[in-house]
User: Fold these one by one.
Assistant:
Number 1:
Amino acid sequence: MSDRDTLPASDSAGFLPALERWVPGFGVIARYQRQDALRDLGAGLVLSGLLVPQGMAYAMLAGLPPITGLYTTVAVLVAYFLFGPSRILVLGPDSSLGPIIALTVLPLAFGVEDRAVVLASMLSVFVGVIAVVLGILRLGFIADLLSKPVRVGYLAGLAVTILASQLPRLLGIRVQGRETLDVLAGVLDRLPRAQPVSVIMGLVVIATIIVVGRVYPKAPAVLIAALGATLCTWWFDLSGRGVAVVGVLPQGIPSLQWPSVALRDVATLLVAAGGIALVSLADSVSTAAAFGAKRGEAVHADRELIAVGIADILAGIVHGFPVSASGSRTAVAERAGAATQVTGLVAATAVVALLVFAPGATSFLPQPALAGIVVVAAFSLIDAREFFTLARVRRSEFIQALVAACGVIVLGVLNGLALAVVVSVLNFFRRAWWPHDAVLGDALGIPGFHDIAFHPDARVDPGLIIYRFDAPLFFANARAFHDRVLELVENAADEVRWVVVAADPITDIEATAAEMLRDLDLELNARGIHFVFAGMKDPVRARVRAYDLEREIPPESFYPTVHAAVKAYRSQVLGKHPDP
């Protein structure tokens, strides 16, 4: 932690430190250093060049006017400057949220643009309130409902959805339908009517962003592509040849206005807000953690949630829509030398200057170029390497990713997101119901006792079974534990005398499992088998006592380690002298 992060000891109990904890922007201003000014100024100007075209492109992806993307960008940059705990995290319109927003508000808007804006603004407020409440209640772990495999699949399916939504704009055609498969079918049907100029424009923009990004990683590739497309449209009068352009933006900054929607729309917006909050918070916290780790900064997940929530609420008040943190935009700020959140404030000021002094700068910005920007962003959501890794390492997780991807493509973004969450939860329960287990043996040359499946030469004492169950014992897996122990007894090569449970991984025992252990002990004793536990944690042992299990399983059946239990077996049953 740097000196700038350390509060003076004399102020540690004062009002200012408490204020800075929840409004870090005051701390940035109070201790701002001169050498950071040029870095933040340059990084902010570079960042604004990315935010303007991306903001407009992602607004159109959400089915909203391009200007709303700029309003949203300004609002969330200012809000995060004041309330964000991360030094350089950048919030803004995001490609992963655009399809959810569009599929939520457009059916409710009935083709009325102003109504769509109001609905999106109210949606942003709802998302913000959810995020703030989760942060205050320290419930940020809810974002973990999207496991890594499911999130990889969900984002891949979302990428296909985004690509389908942008193909009509890229090709200069109109297609009916909102569902991904319907749009793709419409594109194929109307493909012969595509406008060659629009297609070439979009493809050139895509190629420019990719090539410049790879050859000159520090160059503002999106800005270069957008400016080049704008100049070509102006110079060759492409708007007169059928290429759609953004046109002149409304001048000035928006007024603050609380959005108002019909009561019948609230339920739909709340459901969508929950899904958006889940995706946005997972993105924001993981992005903050990734960049925080690189810079050696602590990440406060709950404070991140509150900051993102406040940003969403402010975005809703300025006619904007929900946002998320962006790894690509944050990386641009970092490469440009950003030192503090003043970078975001500079970028917001630059966008405001565009709206106030040069709203006509977008007069010749072609919509196929914005579609190309979104297409590149969509491809970045597909993590092909992770898919191959999942397929190679664990097929069940690969199947989860495929189910999530297909769910988004076939069922739609919201239903696909719901399916992804269900798949994550079911996979968690599957692993708890049927966890990994192992029979242990004394591996030669390796201290301790190890899984004989991985150490087939490990020594197993005759008449002894050492069984490890890698999960807490509860109602769902109690029967599996019971049946597995009896199966091992039945299939043992020698007459079993002791069953030792290596209990280190068992972190809990609930009532159903306690009853199962009592019955299992009686069954084993009836066969002349001693039931033993080794390495059980103190809190779990306390539950054993609370359930009165020691009436059937006496205290002398509990050993501190597996090694101690094996020594006792060799001494008491095999008559061997204990190992030194």
Number 2:
Amino acid sequence: MEDNVIRQNITETLESNYMPYAMSVIVSRALPEIDGFKPSHRKLLYTMYKMNLLKSARTKSANIVGQTMKLNPHGDGAIYETMVRLTKGNGALNTPFIDSKGNFGKVYSRDMAYAASRYTEAKLSDICTELFKEIEEDAVDYIDNYDSTMKEPVLLPVTFPNILVNPNQGIAVGMANNICSFNLKEICEATIAYLKNEKADLHHYILAPDFPTGGIFLYHEEEMREILNTGRGSFKVRSKYIYDKKENCIEITEIPYTTTIESIIDKIEELVKTGKIKEISDVRDETDLQGLKITIDLKRNTDPDVLMEKLFKLTTLQDSFSCNFNILIDGMPKVMGVREILSEWCRFRQKCLVRKYNYNIDKMEKKHHLLLGLKKILLDIDKAIEIVRNTEKEKEVVPNLMLTFDISEMQAEYVAEIKLRHLNKQYILNMLKELESLEEAIAKLKDLIASPEKIKKVIIDELKQTQKKYFTERHTSILKHTEVAMQSPEVFIEDYNVRLFFTDHQYLKKITLVSLRSSGEQKIKDDDIILQEFDSTNKSDLLLFSNKCNVYKLKLHEIEDSKASQFGVYLPNIVDLEENEQIIAIHTTTDYSGYILFGFDTGKVAKIPLLSYETKTNRKKLIKAYYSKSKCVGIVYGSEEDYIKLIREDGKAALVQIGMISEKLKRDSSGIQVLNITKKIGMFKMEKVYEIAEENSKILAKSIPTAGKQV
């Protein structure tokens, strides 16, 4: 068996098998060229052009797909899908190239399937005149199709920068492209400005991307300049909506190009089900023949603008578009900014015009050559007639004319074919006039070819005509990012009352009061105990104090709600604790008012303003949260009017009002002596007292330090 195994170096295998495939995908499938088309688009449109669908009536899409298979060897499904995207009905392009009839789906819908090709009809749109205007005049190269039975153009001689007017996306091997679309008028104006002055500021002409699905472009000048200059960058587009006060609903009428109705609705439904959004009572798709519409019914007293800001943040009602202007230039992929793309397009367009003019010059010079021969004959027409009449054999007529009048074989053939009825005075005069006009036209075209500036003027005139004829208003409106109502992140967090349970085994439960009222006994592990239980709100900050003198900070809304029947969240899973570190106390706050008190076995108490733990940045961990050189025996929160109970190891205790203890601004302060201790007897515990019972009144301290009394 081993004799049949061919051993080959993997690099050789990749070079011989994978590299040709990769190059084929890059060059012949996924990336567009300077005319703005991928090969599949070009083959389809050229087939439709050859079917005379630019001027004739629509034909069945199935007919077009079948004819295209002569150029494109892929299946009919792939060809028809390509065709769908180019249609006016699908709405994927700013300038659709196919005038369609029937259901071609919608670019903004994932589930709205297009009809089968046998049910739909299509022809080329009027703008395709600008694609094929010079294709019969040798403006571009032709190559053989896949079986060498037909010729197809390598590029289409487009008269406007289509590469920037319509969106284009593709994934090749090891590279991709994502080109956003711009408004036709703006691109034409920018190209004209560039042709007049290569250093022109294109930003004055190209305001922002423009998508066929509309929406609102969030304009940021630095982002826009980066995209125009480098071809890379990203920007945000958000949906358009109106609030119907009478029906108390929001109607979304335009969405970003990168999303679909279904994905938006699915996400909103998910947010409602998980309780992250509670202001919505219903959401539905009301898209009809009038266009896109998503309706969101609101609950009473809901602020629609605040809700939409929340939806912009949590759904694709606001979405990002990442630009990657990767285009094939002379068969090589290249990422370019808009200026460089316009430079390449202008070079391509100039080349097309020069080829067209040379083709027409050759054609006119041929005719000019024939007419010169005719002119010589017409000087002595009677002699020419005599030669024809007296020549015995037909094949000798041309050589005799050539010999007598000193003309070429081509000229003699032309003269010999002239009909007898044309040998009149009027015909002769018309021929001589045409000779003069041909000489003028040839001279004019040669002058054009010799002057790049004059060719630029021709391109400018073409762009002006295209702009005037096919101009459309912007679909995507522009909103400066400074005008966007930036809501505080706190607005997006739902606030509600919760009760927290913190256990010795490091579990934390956050239970809504509504859930708490309907629940039974709190479930904890068999050998676990609840260390702290108190009420808070979902918008609070959570402080976690550890035995290593660190404090960890979390947002309480980031911790999921629990039920009484659950253990809750295990804090070491969500907090990056040090080795052998444990949380020993927790506290929540919204305004960082009041004090946090640390009691030590030395009888000292450190009273630290809670404000010392507030940070302007979102730091997750603060070191030296409290004094580390003495053993901490209690951590409590309180205000000046509250009381704390200090207990010694021998049972003596003292009740001290927090206002009697002076505050320390340093978090790791050792505090002041509040309870007197001995060498053998230290402080055992510190806890908060919520009401002064009769037994506690006996140990109430009138001054500090206090020796405490036996309880």
